[in-house]
Amino acid sequence: FLIGDTRHIIREAAKKSCFICYKLGASITCCETGCDRTFHLPCAPDGECVTQYFGAYRSFCWEHRPQQAVQARPSQDNTCSICLDTVENKISYKTMGCPVCQDARFHRHCIQRLALHSGIGFRCPCCLNQDPFMTEMLTMGIRLSKRPPSWESVQEVRPLGERQGRCDAGTCLCPEGREHVEEEGPWQLRLCSSCAAEGTHQRCSSLGNSTCSWECNTC
Which UniProt keywords apply (predicted)? Predict the structure, then answer.
């Protein structure tokens, strides 16, 4: 975009209200012809909207988002193949499935987290299919990472089984360096509550003493 075009887009977005939170500044419009629903990107999950992070980066509202054609099976135990917690007994925005093996079921947030950590190794957690599965997940709004799997990069840094013991914050404020860790106080190390593959000093991520959990940028 040219500068003039960008300014015009910003002015137009400022006039539009998000159909989810009803506040102004909604810059995303559903790509379905004839649909004028607009929304903020952070509001998309609450409104069950889908943004495809490839090609033209198209976005769709809850009514016009792509739907999976995975069929429910009588033997399905309605358990997420990733976190092993219960999922809905039907395919929906929050509950997705593998289009290849038709058996795997998983929460949207679980498969999104797996996609970011798996990187170029992303595949179905059950049948291990990659290409058709990846294409389906992209279409359904799952963001993928082009980097190697996070567990491979972690193994390059430290031996397998060794606990993460350094600060991975963008800017480490500790005068003793990233490897310095204390039992209490501002240089206490907090591990990501989801992957435990990255850590941060309490002060480096502005965490309070009462903060119980922290998640890295990947999660």
Answer: Ligase, Metal-binding, Zinc, Zinc-finger
Whether residue 167 contacts residue 191, with contact meaning beta carbons closer than 8 Å, is answered with no
Residues 34-70 pLDDT 10s: 999 999 988 999 999 999 999 999 999 999 999 998 8
| Residues in contact with 191: Cβ distance below 8 Å, sequence separation at least 6, in sequence order | 164, 198, 199, 214
Backbone angles phi, psi at 96, to 5 degrees: -120, 170
Condensed to tens digits (0 to 9), the pLDDT of residues 189-203 reads 888 766 666 788 888
CATH number (1.20.210.10, 3.40.50.150, 3.30.40.10, 3.40.50.2300) of 10-60 reads 3.30.40.10
CA dihedral 207, 143, 27, 47 (to 10 degrees): -80
pTM equals: 0.65
Q: Tell me which amino acid residue 3 is.
A: I
